[in-house]
Write a structure and sequence with these properties.
The protein is mainly alpha-helical. It has 3 domains: 119 residues, Fumarase/aspartase (N-terminal domain) (Fumarase C, Chain B, domain 1, Orthogonal Bundle), CATH 1.10.275.10; 207 residues, Fumarase/aspartase (Central domain) (Fumarase C, Chain A, domain 2); 56 residues, Ribonucleotide Reductase Protein R1, domain 1 (Orthogonal Bundle), CATH 1.10.40. It is 60% helix and 7% strand. Helix 8 links the parallel strand 5 and strand 6. Helix 2 packs across helix 8. It starts with a strand and ends in an 11-residue tail after the last helix.
Length: 462
């Protein structure tokens, strides 16, 4: 591998000729060797969109010559189109509040722009990574703004995934509407219901997740771009500060706005904590639903699609691996919520030094929830009901007598149950049919009666 020498304020360093980054990225690559986690590419794309907006604003105001601006914009477009996938090598866990990642983008865009102008990588001329690509910017307004862009796009994708999951459960709600079964509380048989009603509850939970994620986008629309180092705008002209937000809206297509107090937006990250709480709520729902699907499969009341062999020693064993994976994704999101909370709390004065970890955890949660929702939706399409097993559990449960209270009263139901126990039977439904008549039992235990909200009033004012 061949190298060239680059200089910065700390001295000289060898940088491989074949890479698009420069000395600042090279130092960070050597300094931060903590994990195998990489800076999320969605965050890189957000930073590139910020660079594009800044370039457009600076060019329009005459601060950036048109020749340079044209090539910077071209380099930005190439990155946004997915070129140079190996140009982003940095560990997600890094000191400096994201400066290394910002410089990585600056250097790649500058080097590519210089290539387009007929130069070579590492020259820093005619396009300079800091003086041109980073003109009128600071990591402290670029990085948080880019994170908000990436987060909003992630929230939009997640809301759509939640909608797909809701639709999958609603389909099963209709398919299973006629399947009568026993409901359960405290891991014990409770009162009769339908399998469709059980899936309807799943659909409602997914629907709330859809609405919450859709609305939470509003919490992140205000950005601090133009605030530079600490939110005061020091080093940037007023004309740029106002214009760059307009350009950012054009570049992203998002309803972004400059916050009224950019010092606040630079120093405080509580909006991410708030939205992370919403992601946590969605993770809780996914964990609960996936756990219920496992239990229903264990009881034999539903059959989950078989997707892979379940054991290396037990032939024919098939496990509920998709719900298990969803639960693990949800647990990870719960852990990430704690990370977001801790990192937001540990910022100091006018900056949050721990933004890189917050960014990774937050964006990972979005990705995990989106993929888990889609995976569970696809899996749920193949769920089948075992109506016979549901009926077996229902008929053998003493608690189904509760459904007869409005018709017979508490004391009469108690007497019937006592008499049934004395027979040593194992099918309460059949016993009740013999005592009360098949038509009445069929009426009481019909899907329509079990899923109606209460029973029809019989009082004189009803």
């Amino acid at each position: 591998m061949e190298y060239h020498t680059e200089k910065d304020g700390l001295g000289e360093k060898q940088v491989p000729n074949e890479v698009y980054w420069g000395i600042h990225t090279q130092r960070a690559l050597e300094n931060f060797r903590l994990s195998s986690l990489k800076v999320p590419f969605d965050l890189i794309l957000g930073i590139v969109q910020v660079k594009k907006a800044a370039c457009l604003a600076n060019a329009a105001l005459g601060y950036l010559p048109s020749g340079k601006a044209e090539k910077i914009l071209a380099a930005c477009e190439e990155v946004l189109d997915g070129k140079f996938p190996d140009a982003w090598p940095l560990d997600a866990l890094q000191g400096g509040a994201g400066t290394s990642t910002n410089m990585n983008v600056n250097e790649v865009i500058a080097n590519r722009a210089n290539e387009l102008l007929g130069g070579t990588r590492g020259q820093k001329t005619p396009v300079h990574p800091i003086e041109d690509v980073n003109m009128h910017q600071s990591t402290n307004d670029v990085y948080p703004t880019a994170l908000r862009i990436a987060a909003i796009r992630g929230l939009q994708a997640l809301s759509q995934a939640a909608a797909r999951l809701q639709g999958a459960f609603q389909s099963k709600e209709k398919e299973f509407a006629h399947v009568v079964k026993i409901g359960r509380t405290e891991m014990q048989a409770a009162v009769p219901m339908t399998l469709g009603a059980e899936f309807a509850a799943f659909a409602e939970a997914a629907g709330r997740d859809r609405w919450r994620t859709f609305k939470s986008e509003e919490r992140l629309r205000m950005v601090n771009l133009g605030g530079t180092a600490i939110g005061t705008g020091l080093g940037a002209p007023q004309s740029y500060i106002f214009l760059v937000i307009e350009k950012l809206r054009e570049v992203t297509g998002l309803g972004l706005g400059r916050g009224e107090n950019t010092v606040d937006l630079t120093a405080n990250l509580d909006p991410f904590v708030e939205v992370s709480g919403i992601l946590k709520a969605q993770a809780v729902n996914l964990i609960k639903i996936a756990g219920d699907l496992r239990l229903l499969a264990l009881l034999g009341e539903i059959r989950l699609p078989a997707v892979q062999a379940g054991s290396s020693i037990m032939p024919g064993k098939v496990n509920p691996v998709i719900p298990e994976a969803v639960i693990q994704a949800g647990i990870r999101v719960l852990a990430n919520d704690l990370i977001v909370t801790e990192t937001a709390a540990r910022g100091s004065l006018q900056i949050n030094e721990f933004l890189p970890l917050l960014a990774y955890a937050f964006l990972e949660s979005l990705e995990l929830l989106t993929r888990a929702s889609d995976m569970l939706a696809e899996h749920s399409a193949g769920i089948r009901a075992d109506a016979a097993k549901c009926r077996e559990h229902l008929d053998g449960s003493e608690t189904l007598v509760t459904a007869f209270l409005p018709e017979l009263g508490y004391d009469r139901c108690g007497e019937l149950l006592k008499e049934y126990r004395a027979t040593g039977g194992n099918n309460l439904r059949k016993f009740l049919e013999e005592k009360l008549g098949e038509s009445l039992v069929l009426k009481i235990l019909s899907p329509q009666n079990l899923t109606s909200l209460g029973y029809k009033d019989r009082g004189k004012n009803a």
